[in-house]
Amino acid sequence: MKRFFRNKNFTVGFILSAIVVIAAVISLIWTPYDANRMNAKLRLQGPSWQHPLGTDHYGRDTLSRVMVGAVNSIIVGLMTVAIGLSAGVLLGLASAYYSRWVDEIIMRFSDFLFGFPAVLTAILITSILGPSMINAMLAIGIFYIPVFARLTRAVAMTVWDKEFIVAARAAGISEWSIAGRHVLPNILSPLLIQGTIQFAVAILAEAGLSYLGLGTQPPHASWGRMLNEAQTYMSLSPWIAIFPGLAIAWAVLGFNLLGDGLRDTLDPKMVRIR
User: Fold this and answer.
1) What's the CATH number where 254 sits?
2) Strand partners for 55
3) Looking at the 3D structure of the chain, how many domains does it have?
């Protein structure tokens, strides 16, 4: 672990990401107030000792909602990366191993998905399936499939011809067993790096969909939804938009730096260059 923390990007990213995760975990067992409890007498109050981040237009505590929103963001990040990673790795391994026409079909499918802007694709899918957090995760996860498929194919093709793979084949081990026991462990580093970066992108994408009303639905807290609800009151109470916006920036920056730090540390080419 020491070599990771020697990297400034990893250290800063780890600290920022850890704060987000800790806030999310704490919110599962405790928040200063009920995140969905409304109180008309406390509408649009500024930051104070009772409400450190103020209250929104329904009198709900902003700090409590930001903490609960962190849970939503982490769940979306984990699920979308899981969808993209699981399907993308299978397609990438198949593309790297099987015949040329299989490779062509999978890669052209990836190119087809890449031909559509990610946000527009997510908007289209959630518009068809209906607005909800689950559909938002599905929409973002589908776009991640070609990302991981192309990465898996690229790194797996450099491993398939190695001597230990030839030895495994000579020992009579099946191709998919070789893929699981020998190829996959040797390509985990780039997949981990890409997964961390896509995690940050997922948080931003979910916030965008929720801002448009296609992601997490009220009364559940979402940073993007909080920004949407705050825009009407920006001139009166700017803090109800500032703090959710800062939370998004904080989380995205943290996980991006974490991914950059992992790349710098785990990529042997980067190590040699330095």
Assistant:
1) 1.10.3720.10
2) 61
3) 1
Q: Note whether residue 220 is domain-resident.
A: yes
Query: Phi and psi for 55 in degrees, rounded to 5?
Result: -130, 160
Q: Cα separation of 223 and 66, whole Å?
A: 7
Structural domain containing residue 74? 8-28+53-273
**Enclosing H/E stretch for 195:** helix 188-211
Q: Is there a domain that residue 35 lies in? A: no
In terms of Cβ atoms closer than 10 Å to its own Cβ (0-12, 13-18, 19+), residue 268 is: exposed
pTM above 0.70, yes or no: yes
Phi–psi pair at 61, nearest 5 degrees: -70, 125
For residue range 222-257, what is the model confidence (pLDDT) as tens digits? Answer: 999 999 989 888 888 888 999 999 999 999 999 999
Displacement of CA 150 from its chain's centroid (Å): 18
H-only helix segments in 115-187: 118-129, 133-157, 163-170, 175-178, 184-186
pLDDT in tens, 90-123: 888 888 877 678 888 888 888 887 777 777 777 8
Q: Take residue 152 and report the two structure tokens written for it.
A: 């898996």
